[in-house]
């Protein structure tokens, strides 16, 4: 397969234009919702859409309860799905939560979500990745700028830009407790990064990303074009962002933790192929290589 | 001298009530300005006051030019006044800039500043510390929560809470490029920290503070009382904050650097005594022990 988005090959960073649509459905399929015309236009232009108070307080309470339970259960568990902070033993993320937990499994199949994603991606979708993230108070570390697609393309073999990340805010996200920052419009450019991917890179990159890191000049250029937008909102808000939207977050020294549920829907027409790095694929709990099983909408 | 604010002595953190006024002048002295009644009341209640666009664009340009010049001159200088980032050789702060640079010397004597500080502190004032700070884009590190007074009291022998920090924003401070965060009302409480101060602590603490660090429980309590306020504003804004106001800042992964001029006026009636740690005082470039020379207003 031709590599439309080469990265980690050259010694010089490059910026390519996006070669894929942002919104895939058209006409009546697009018009039937759930998102209205303004919401679709905003997503298409900016590369993300924040839907405040998408989930009720009761739903948030239930999800938070499940998150805390998984947290406690995994506190001392040594499992590849449990990712810890680089400089401490604190849990940073737990992957594959939707296969371990009924509540999160149901959440991933919630038609309010899948119908929305299908409307934008113009096809059936499946869950490519599912994790819960916890950024503790006082010592939450930053997560540097990256395009999810860059990694998924190089390390997992996602061929095209036809996936959407969902982040459900489980705590209030203020401007000061390390909320997600996004660069509006950045999804229209592919920043080809320098360097070569080593074998089993994910074992360190999930703690702290050292590869697939965009260069300062490209980031400055993207911010000059689109500025920076901060996804602040109350617990229960849903952030959808296009797989190639450049995003990151600062650390969090406030006492207010920031936790969320994060999952990725990919189009069934965009199933993973061999990684474009030429290396062996990352494990299934990071990138689902069997879309057949968990097709969620029909 | 009795130690009204003991810290770094016990094994348990404690919170004491403030034993000093916040605003020292009264009656006609207070009423004559430059700050109006609302501004004084806001400062007294919150422990800080942000005056947007206090300096003109021309003045900011001049200060930025001087800052950049000092930066370039000191790039490879190995001097105690030049503090570097903990994990790189990047300059973090340059102390004593007002004694090295005519522009900053004039700034420290600017009556728009000294009259304001004298109004609040009810006496003549002198510059206790003067430095320029640079938080670079992409890799600016956080500065953890602290009360300036806690350090100045323990390590420099500042007897009472009768000093004010001034921060002049030289770049636009957005919510997302690591602006100063303050806890409103925190100046009314003294958080006594655990631990003992080692000899020459300042040599590492100016890069990364490990002592005089408030405990999580006290910080949580202060934030529950007062919330968190973020000092965002355009370049040229002036932030005044009371010496005991709890403050800190998150890191900055954005391309937008955050630099400022920071200086501290102390009341001539609050001159430094022997450090309450019992150790030898920090050098003069960090804490001016000779208020006679640079009395600025009369």
From TrEMBL, chains A, B:
Domain of life of the organism encoding this protein: Bacteria
Main enzyme class: oxidoreductase
Signal peptide segment = none
Q: Which residues form a coiled coil?
A: none
- Cross-referenced Pfam families: PhyH
Question: Oxidoreductase among the record's keywords?
Answer: yes
As cofactor, the record names:
Fe(2+)
Report which reactions are catalysed by this protein: L-ectoine + 2-oxoglutarate + O2 = 5-hydroxyectoine + succinate + CO2
The entry's family comment says: Belongs to the PhyH family. EctD subfamily.
* Matches recorded under PANTHER family: ECTOINE DIOXYGENASE, PHYTANOYL-COA DIOXYGENASE DOMAIN CONTAINING 1
What's this chain's function?
Answer: Involved in the biosynthesis of 5-hydroxyectoine, called compatible solute, which helps organisms to survive extreme osmotic stress by acting as a highly soluble organic osmolyte. Catalyzes the 2-oxoglutarate-dependent selective hydroxylation of L-ectoine to yield (4S,5S)-5-hydroxyectoine.
- NCBIfam families assigned: ectoine_ThpD
What's the name of the protein?
Ectoine hydroxylase
Q: Which organism is it from?
A: Salinithrix halophila
């Amino acid at each position: 397969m031709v590599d439309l988005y080469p990265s980690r090959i050259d010694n010089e960073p490059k910026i390519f234009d996006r070669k894929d649509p942002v919104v895939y459905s058209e006409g009546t399929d697009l018009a039937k919702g759930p998102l209205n015309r303004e919401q679709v236009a905003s997503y298409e232009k900016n590369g993300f859409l924040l839907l405040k108070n998408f989930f009720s307080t009761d739903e948030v309470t239930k999800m938070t309860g499940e998150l805390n339970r998984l947290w406690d259960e995994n506190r001392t568990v040594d499992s590849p799905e449990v990712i810890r902070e680089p400089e401490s033993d604190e849990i940073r993320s737990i992957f594959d939560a939707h296969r371990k937990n009924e509540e999160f499994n149901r959440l991933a199949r919630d038609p309010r979500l899948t119908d929305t994603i299908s409307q934008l991606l113009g096809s059936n979708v499946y869950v490519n990745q599912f994790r819960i993230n916890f950024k503790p108070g006082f010592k939450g570390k930053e997560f540097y700028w990256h395009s999810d697609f860059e990694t998924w393309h190089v390390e997992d073999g996602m061929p095209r830009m036809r996936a959407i990340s969902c982040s459900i805010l489980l705590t209030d996200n203020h401007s000061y407790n390390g909320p997600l920052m996004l660069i509006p419009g950045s999804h229209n450019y592919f920043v080809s990064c320098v360097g070569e991917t080593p074998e089993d890179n994910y074992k360190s990159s999930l703690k702290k990303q050292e590869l697939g890191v965009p260069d300062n000049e490209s980031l400055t250029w993207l911010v000059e074009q689109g500025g920076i937008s901060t996804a602040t909102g109350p617990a229960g808000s849903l952030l959808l962002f296009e797989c190639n939207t450049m995003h990151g977050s600062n650390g969090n020294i406030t006492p207010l933790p920031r936790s969320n549920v994060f999952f990725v829907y990919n189009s069934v027409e965009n199933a993973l192929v061999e990684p474009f790095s030429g290396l062996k694929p990352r494990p299934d709990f990071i990138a689902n290589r069997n879309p057949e099983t968990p097709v969620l909408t029909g």
